[in-house]
Amino acid sequence: MLKEQLEDIEIQLLLEGIHRYYGFDFRNYALASIKRRIWNIIRAEGLTTISGLQEKVLHHPECMERFLCSLSVNVTTMFRDPNFFLTFRQKVVPILRTYPFIRIWHAGCSTGEEVYSLAILLHEEGLYHRCRLYATDINEMVLKKAKAGIYPLDAMQDYTQQYLQAGGKKAFSEYYTAAYDHAIFSSCLKENMVFSQHNLATDNSFNEFHIIFCRNVLIYFNKILQERVINLFHESLVPFGILGLGRQETLRFTPHERDYEELEGGEKLYRRIR
């Protein structure tokens, strides 16, 4: 028990030091999840203790860069949970047709696969020309990958299946060019995208949006940070705007639960009603 308490104290000191020195706030990330990832980083750095990692992170910025890459969760695919995108196409697109201009925020966009997925969907529905997609993440390195729009070619077979299940209307290969072992996505998809660094734990709203996607990010936060982020999204959504969450995420038991209605049972697409 004492060993566990000491470990928790070391983690708190590590995260407090990172917050004070670098400005990245991981203090309200879910403890069990962040603890596992910290120990993976310790082993990768050839260290044996959390305190040893703290010393290295604070005195060596290049170690902090590796820490940030390892700690931020960058698992995503194109058209992840195809039914979510199919429901978006069926239930949300008709609403968007009534807007002259559409602002969309992908919060925690990681390497950008879902940003391109939505761009493709909106293009097929004839709406992309009046959209602006703001894609943000805490991790500058993954944002560079997202902006490049280059993904492993061997993933395209799975992405094609998910695209079709999501109601895709064309040959998925029309949207990228194969080059060696990579798929380079069309530059026309990038025209209305803006990529920028944003920290959900500390940064504020930067615009008013009709759509906000934050999928499979909140599950890594504790209740305090989850409520902070949901409040941030509420402040950032226009009346009757749409919030899209991940399969394991919900607005239930949050202060804003009654401010939204679910568009389709189980697909985690919520419309702000007040």
Automatic annotation (TrEMBL):
Annotated CheR-type methyltransferase domain residues: 1-251
Name listed for the protein in its UniProt record: Protein-glutamate O-methyltransferase CheR
InterPro entries linked: Bact_Chemotaxis_MeTrfase (IPR050903), CheR_C (IPR022642), CheR_MeTrfase (IPR000780), CheR_N (IPR022641), SAM-dependent_MTases_sf (IPR029063)
Source species: Brasilonema bromeliae SPC951
Signal peptide: none
